[in-house]
Structures are given as C-alpha cells and as structure tokens.
C-alpha cells in the first residue's frame, strides 16, 4: 500500500542520516533532534494552514457556495491545486506520525483529510453523473485505443503534463471526445488521490454503482435478454429467429463499443491500481457479458436441429469467432475468465449443433421419396434445393473448417471413385470440410441416379442425369464450393455430363442416323432411294415427336447437344438428299415422299430442348411448304 511505502521511505532516510552523523545505531527516540523536530513541526503547521484554507473553502457543510458549485467544473486550476494540497497534507502527516504520533496536529490533519475525501467523493460522483453522455462507451472507445490507456501511472505532480496531453489531443478530436478526455483525466486524478489516501473503497463503490447502471442500460437498449432453456423451447422458429437476428446486431456493438469503452474508461480511471481496475470492470461488466455470450449456448442446447436453421447457427458462431481477439483482450482479467469460458462453451455447442444439422440434411436427401419423373428430363427440385443449400453453406467455409476439424469424415470406401485431385493422398489428405461437401454431393447424385429409373424412355433418363449433373457443376463453379472441391473435381464431372449427353444422343437419335445408308453417295435404284427417304421420314418424325418436350436449361449444354445431333443427322441426310433427289424428279407426290429438305431438318433441330411440345405440327406444315417452294424452283 502507498501509506506503508511512504512510511518506510521516510523512516529509512532519517535513520541513514542520523547514523552517519553519530557514527552508531541510535534508538528510535533519538532519531530526531530538537532542531529537526521543530522544522517538521513548522512545516506541518504551514501545510495545515494552507490545507485548511483550501479544504474549508470547498466544505459543503459550512459553505453555501461549495454546496452548489463543482470544484472541477468551476475552476480546473484550483481543482489541481486542491488535489496537490491533499497530497501535501498526506505526506506531512506521514512524516509527523513518526515524530509524534500523539500530536494534536495529526488530529487536525485527519479531520481535514476526512473533509477533503468527502469533497472529492462528491466531485467524483458529480463528474460521473454529469458526464454520462460524454463517458458513454461509444465516446470513450472512439477517443482512444486501449493500448494508450495502459501506460504507467503518472507521478503525483504530473497533472500539468496531463493537461498538456489533453490539450494536444483536443486539437485532433471532436468537442465531445475532448470533454470525455477531460472528464477521464479528472476522475483519474481524484481516484489516485483517494486511493493513495486510503479512501479507495468509497471511490470504487460510487464508480461501480454508476457505471454498472450504464452497462446494464446499454444491454437493455440492445435488446439482449436472459432466457431459460424452457423459454427457448417454447418459441416458434419465427420468434426465435427474430431474437437471434437482434442478438447478431447487438453483439458487435456490445463488444466493440459497450464493453470495450467500459474497459478503456476503467483502465484510465484506475491506472494506479491493477487490482481495483480488475475489481471494478469485473463487477460492472461480467453479468451483462455472460447474458450476451450465454444466449447462443442456450439456443444451441434447446433449439430444434432442423437443417434450415443451420445458417442462423453459423451466423452466431461467426459473430463470436470473428470478435474473439477483442473479447479475449477486453475480458483478460482472471476474474472475467468466466466470460471467456462462456464464449467458448457457446462456440462448442453451436459447433455441435451445426454438425448435427449437417447429418440431418444428409438424412433428408436420402429420405426424399418423390417418384414422379420431371417433365422433359429437367432439373429435379431436390437438386435445386440441395445445391442452393450447399452454396450458402460454403459461404461459411472459414468457420466450418474449425467446426468440422476432427469430425469423422465419410469412409473413403463409400466413395465409388477418387473424388479429389492428387492432393487427396495419404501424405496430404483432403480437409474434413472438402470431404464433407463431396460426400453430400455424392449422396445427391446417387439419389438422382435412382430417380432416373422412373423414366420409361432410357434416353430421357440420361438427359435427366446430364441436366442435373450440369446444374450441380454450375453451382459448384459459381460458389465457394469450387475452392473446397478443386478444379479436378469439376473437370471429372464435366466429362460425366458429356458421357450422359452422348448416351442420350445415341439412344434418342441413333435410329435416325441408322435410317441413312452407310455411304449416302453410293449409286442405288430409284426404289432403294424411295425406301431410304421413307425410313428417314419415319425415324425423324418419331424422334422429333418424342424429344420435342425435352428441356436442357443450361444454354451451353443445350447448344452442344443440338450441335452434335445436327452434325451427325444432317451430314448424312444432306449428302443423300443432294445425290439422290434428282432420281425422283419425275415422281408424283414428291412432297410426300421427300418430306424434308436439309434446311427443314436444321429448323426442327434448332427448336429442340426448350420444351416446345407444339413445335412439331407448326414446323411440319412450314417444312412442307418450304420444300414445295424448293422443288418448284428446281
């Protein structure tokens, strides 16, 4: 304690001086000569006279002026003199108590000290109360960083230097921040004076009461409430989501402004004492912080674990983890470690909930029981839902890496092929998050493979698989999933799409190509020519009629399939048409025999895969008309 330190200092200095003078170790009674005693007595008298004048002037019990006027607000220079006067009085009393502990001057000094402490206690309260607006956490946290407030304690006589620092700071900060800085400096000088005089308890009590009310009010205004598990369980999701959204908005303000500002103020005011600083901040902030950081744990413990709630759960996890450096710094005292423990517990429980929800999501994919085939072999609603879900989930990959770290990955034996590039080896295994996303997509693709069997037309089943896998790839490429799975995964599955598309082309249009002779330009009889035209007409009409309702939503895939079909069908038919149509020039009803010009075939194919069921009849009539004009012109 400062009192003991001073007494030891003065006692040892006097002992040394006396020992040197007399050459021996004197008794305590002989330490002070009559001259030194008289000198100390006179100094004490002068100090008492000065202190009595200053302290009596601001004694609210005997002065109406002092009762209604603030010392620090009225005259800050006189306030500094008041603080110095109290320090001088304290030093003189320490000296005198060693010379004459029964001196009546000590009684006078103690009475003056009590009056001064009462005045400073009032000033401390007034500054805290009158400057609530300027000492709100936002103003405090905006003014300075916490690193600047952790400087060493200034000397008792360094107030003028503090004033200079405030003046310099005021040149670069707003007026509100300047007032905040002055108020903090005044509070600090009062706190240091009272603590060094042995009246720290009175100072701390006032500080805790006023500042805790401000923090509690801040928590209330942020809408942060204390809930029990039963209350959370009884809430419907809409109501709970509103509470979560409000918490997400509040936690950033609470950490960066409310608690950070309060820690800065506490560090500044009680810079002279680590223990008092810790005690004050802990009592002021611990309860509110535990309520704030305890909410996610209660939600994670009590809320339902349905997959659609995973995103709000991840939002809460992200809110705590992204602010963890600030949380750890603000609540760095041993007595506030319970706040850190609460935050960690919330992260643990939120992580467990996320893993449970991902398992539930996988189960939901596997349990999808829809059996109706999607018209035209289009993209299944399950594919859309799963990939939308995974795309959003991948946006949280930075926290999912931590959540899924150490979580048992799916067995590699359950994956039918190498799902990753060369980095997926024993030496460099794929991260757990990558394995988890790859597994969920594989579960979806297996489910889609089963749903493709609902198509009676095998060619349409392959088109269904091509469309759905293409949708999966598109979602992977346009989201963060691509960074989790890698380019090699995309390339492998793009080749699968081409395989599915090739199977569709072969099964859906192969018989049209087979209706043409192997050598379309070979010589043949008119009857053989007629037969090949009839066979092509029938095969093309059947294929187009069957495929007219097909859809390929992806433009690139649609153009590739149409281009491949057109190249194979039109190349053979154009050669045959140009070589052998002249043989039938004199035939009656030529339009019925040769129903399609090559241009008509191209028109039919270009209109495919948009789901235009009615296109056949309209193009049929137009192709007949077009062919008639062509034949007449020739």
UniProtKB/TrEMBL annotation:
Component of the exocyst complex. It comes from Actinidia rufa. Residues 154-163 have a biased composition (Acidic residues). Belongs to the EXO70 family. It comes from the Eukaryota. The keyword Protein transport applies. Keywords: Exocytosis, Protein transport, Transport. GO terms for molecular function: phosphatidylinositol-4,5-bisphosphate binding. Pfam families: Exo70_C (PF03081), Exo70_N (PF20669). One of its GO terms (biological process) is exocytosis. SUPFAM superfamilies: Cullin repeat-like (SSF74788). One of its GO terms (cellular component) is exocyst. Residues 1-32, 138-164 are annotated as: Disordered. Residues 246-607 form the Exocyst complex subunit Exo70 C-terminal domain. Residues 12-30, 139-152 have a biased composition (Low complexity). The keyword DNA-binding does not apply. This is Exocyst subunit Exo70 family protein. InterPro entries: Cullin_repeat-like_dom_sf, Exo70, Exo70_C. The lineage of its organism: Eukaryota, Viridiplantae, Streptophyta, Embryophyta, Tracheophyta.
